[in-house]
């Protein structure tokens, strides 16, 4: 199968084999070395000198960890949303009793930092801003650097970032941009299976942690920090996925982050160019387009569910429909992590063959 | 290494290989078949016709899921504790604002159902009882059937069970004993790596769910139920561990639960007999002793940390010290899941060789 959804993403064969190693004591010296090495690798990719913790959960779990460690019920949060995952961040904060002001942008477009400034100016009691770096549901990358310059540089608010489909694939300079917490998951650009998620925590975030009163136990950053001092997780971690991350990080670090980002930019450009060459229309502008997931408008007369189904059954290629209210309107191609030119070429050839059969006329 | 801690436990080679299969779409038809098969297998092992959900987290996460889906802040919970994990259940409930009455029994002994009755009689406002089936920290199995007969049969209270180190190894008849929620984790008797956890949910538990107001998002049983109807998890699951569980459940179901329980009883008896033959004293009575983990008193003059360290470095055998206040006083042997007679024999031989070097005299 050519797995071209925005996660889980394909895992290189040697990483899969590394993940099949026998279990070890998660409180023993072998694990201590393993978690030390993986944490160091994560910090390098995150471009941070600060804390990064490893949780056993999905990216959504890492978002929830962000909320419950940073906020108290009643805290006013500005949630910047450009799609399903932006909305999810707001839902989590609301589930735990935060007061959320939603700043929403049309799906398929990126967030405007000037609007963020406007809302912050109008609401001096806002305590934190939550924002998606890369919106998986629409294939849009926000200009996080500019948003961070407003949120941190101009207002000094707490900045909580969903980096699930960006960290390790699209530049996110955690320390330089002053991101307080950045959440991501192992099944995205890391070339590893799902099961682990990661959170960076800045010194300012630790100050927020001390004040935050939302209930937490499993996701407690304080416990994670305490155990990491001894080379452990507080709770039994997904050891196999740790093995996979160790092997995958070795590849990523050997390649170098500049090359990794360039590879993602290049394969994304190839995907966008290929779609346009087929006569398809991209869902986003060139400026907003993500380098990890491309969203394409389902052409007139073609049914999205049918397109997805026949790509899988007739061309062994797995693509994703839209999410939420976009379900029938777009289809999405994941090209983060282990995505090779031949994979995208195969996908484009399959589309070229299938689309006319579904009634598509250029 | 002879990994003889009470989790993570060794995983059979073919299960490890199964876990190394390539990723699939967690919203596609292959995953739908996989989660259907694994859920059916789980229900068989749980001896339940009701719901069982798969979460990506550790056993502690499954305990937190139990609490947040069943309770509201202020609810009065009777927590029956016989060790570290019993205490943890109380800590989680308290972290989320429950009012917890702690009924504690001496570490190394089991809970007395008559005392449970007494506390329930004295506190008619108790809403739920949380209890550990098998206490990993002390090697004691509670008489859950008798406790359930009191909690459910006599008082009709909600019964929340930590079955982390019992389900799949020690008989726990979820429906017959009327357990409302039973939590467990993949790295215990299931012969799979850590990363997934499971919760059964009874019809009465669903009634409690409707009333429960503790905040929840990632661990929400309602979302799990809604997505499972379509053969999915709400969030991206640990796919590799799902593969492992699928392969391991095939072995467990082929063996049959009666045989699986008998195998655990037999290997546990061999462990206890072997320790006594070495002149060591067990931490628990024969009646209380667990069939998944054996706790042994560290003999006079021997230092626990040194024993654990040299077993690992000189005999390639990983054993566990005590936990919490028992850390230096006992050592613990895990024999749940994939534990063969030769593994226990090797461990006993190693102890026979090492103990005299550490100053042990029979």
From the structure above, extract its key features.
43% helix, homodimer, 2 domains, globular, alpha/beta, three-stranded antiparallel sheet, 14 strands, seven-stranded mixed sheet, 362 residues, 12 helices, Aspartate Aminotransferase, domain 1, Aspartate Aminotransferase, domain 2
What do these coordinates show?
- Two copies of one chain form a homodimer.
- Chain A is an alpha/beta fold and 362 residues long.
- Chain A folds into two domains: 241 residues, Type I PLP-dependent aspartate aminotransferase-like (Major domain) (Aspartate Aminotransferase, domain 2, 3-Layer(aba) Sandwich), CATH 3.40.640; 101 residues, Aspartate Aminotransferase, domain 1 (Alpha-Beta Complex).
- Chain A is 43% helix and 16% strand.
- The first copy, chain A, is built from twelve helices and 14 strands.
- In chain A, strands 2-10-9-8-5-3-4 form a seven-stranded mixed sheet, sandwiched between helices. Chain A has a three-stranded antiparallel sheet with strand order 11-14-13, covered by helices on one side. Chain A has a two-stranded parallel ribbon with strand order 1-12.
- In chain A, helix 4 links the parallel strand 3 and strand 4.
- In chain A, helix 3 crosses helix 4, helix 5 runs parallel beside helix 6 and helix 10 runs parallel beside helix 12.
- The first copy, chain A, is globular and about 60 Å long.
- The mean pLDDT of chain A is 98.
Quickly describe the structure:
The structure is a homodimer of 362-residue chains. With 362 residues, chain A is of the alpha/beta class. Chain A has two domains: 14-254, Type I PLP-dependent aspartate aminotransferase-like (Major domain) (Aspartate Aminotransferase, domain 2, 3-Layer(aba) Sandwich), CATH 3.40.640.10; 257-357, Aspartate Aminotransferase, domain 1.
């Amino acid at each position: 199968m050519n797995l071209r959804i925005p996660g889980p993403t394909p895992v290189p064969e040697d990483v899969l084999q590394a993940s099949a190693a026998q279990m070890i004591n998660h409180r023993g010296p072998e694990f201590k070395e393993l978690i030390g090495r993986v944490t160091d690798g994560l910090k390098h990719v995150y471009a941070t000198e600060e804390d990064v913790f490893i949780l056993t959960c999905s990216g959504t779990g890492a978002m929830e960890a962000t909320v419950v460690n940073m906020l108290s019920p009643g805290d006013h949060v500005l949630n910047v949303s450009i799609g399903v995952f932006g909305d999810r961040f707001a839902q989590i904060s609301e589930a735990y009793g935060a007061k959320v002001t939603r700043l929403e942008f049309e799906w398929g477009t990126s967030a405007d930092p000037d609007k963020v400034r406007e809302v912050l100016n109008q609401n001096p009691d806002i305590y934190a801003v939550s924002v998606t770096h890369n919106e998986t549901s629409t294939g849009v990358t926000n200009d996080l650097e500019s948003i961070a310059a407003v949120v941190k540089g101009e207002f000094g608010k707490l900045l909580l970032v969903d980096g699930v489909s960006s960290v390790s694939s699209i530049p996110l300079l955690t320390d330089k941009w002053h991101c307080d917490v950045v959440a991501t998951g192992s099944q995205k650009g890391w070339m590893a299976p799902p099961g682990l998620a990661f959170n960076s925590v800045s010194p300012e975030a630790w100050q927020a942690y001390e004040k935050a009163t939302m209930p937490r136990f499993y996701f407690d950053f304080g416990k994670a920090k305490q155990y990491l001092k001894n080379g452990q997780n507080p709770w039994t971690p997904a050891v196999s996925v740790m093995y996979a991350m160790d092997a995958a990080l070795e590849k990523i670090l050997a390649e170098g982050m500049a090359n990794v980002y360039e590879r993602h930019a290049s394969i994304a450009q190839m995907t966008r160019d290929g779609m346009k060459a087929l006569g398809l229309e991209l869902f986003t502008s060139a400026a907003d387009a993500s380098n990890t997931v491309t969203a394409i408008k389902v052409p007139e007369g073609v049914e999205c569910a049918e397109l997805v189904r026949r790509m899988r059954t007739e061309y062994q290629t797995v693509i994703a429909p839209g999410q939420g209210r976009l379900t029938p309107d777009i289809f999405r191609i994941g090209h983060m992590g282990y995505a090779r030119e031949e994979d995208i070429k195969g996908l484009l050839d399959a589309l070229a063959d299938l689309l006319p059969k579904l009634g598509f006329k250029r």
